[in-house]
Amino acid sequence: MPIKHDSAVPVYRQLAAILREEIASGTLAPDSPLPSESRLMQEHGISRDTVRKAIEILREEGLVVTVKGKGTYVAEG
Amino acid sequence: MPIKHDSAVPVYRQLAAILREEIASGTLAPDSPLPSESRLMQEHGISRDTVRKAIEILREEGLVVTVKGKGTYVAEG
DNA sequence: TGGGATTTGTTCGTATGTATC
DNA sequence: TGATACATACGAACAAATCCC
């Protein structure tokens, strides 16, 4: 599911949807770390700003927890 | 002094006036930092674009100095 | 003790598109 | 047409926490 820059759906919401799906499917298991912001930037060819907006959405949904200096983790069931 | 979106005075000029007054009154002392663009956006419920236009006015008036990655500071007397 | 690498947190700089008046 | 205002997106710099050697 490559990200489309010409979509009506903002890039950051596309990424949030991708990560949300990986969490729902178990590809990203509870307590496991998400790829770092740097990794997500590279993998999707997008900016840090956009990556952080996506993660912020998931954080507000209670799906992930972020720890400064460490990373972002999938919330426990 | 809440900002009025239905005023004849543009929002960015209203914010510039507010900040100018805080500098003049000493509420914002020389060398002290202004609230970040992010803070000003939240506090006044306006966009970053508009916040930056307001700060640009003060910068042109020599009232503030902006440093990338750090913030905007009240100019020294 | 110290230093370097990695990671998230925060800030300003710039550009583009959309909508409204 | 131009000015205003918002949202999106990418860059860049600085700061702080963590980790490992």
Task: Outline the structure in words.
2 copies of one chain form a homodimer. The first copy, chain A, is mainly alpha-helical. Chain A starts with 10 loop residues before the first helix and ends with a strand. The mean pLDDT of chain A is 97. The chains hardly touch. Chain A binds a DNA duplex (21 and 21 nucleotides) through helix 3.
In total, the number of strands of chain A is: 2
Low-confidence residue ranges of chain A: none
Largest sheet of chain A: 2 strands, antiparallel
Structural class of chain A: mainly alpha
User: Average pLDDT of chain A, to the nearest integer?
Assistant: 97
Strand and helix order of chain A: HHHEE
DSSP helix fraction of chain A: 40-55%
- The helix count of chain A comes to 3
Assembly state of the chains shown: homodimer
Strand content of chain A: 5-15%
Radius of gyration of chain A: 12 Å
Question: Judging from the principal axes of the Cα atoms, what is the shape of chain A?
Answer: globular
Task: Output the strand order for the largest sheet of chain A.
Answer: 1-2
Distance between the termini of chain A: 26 Å
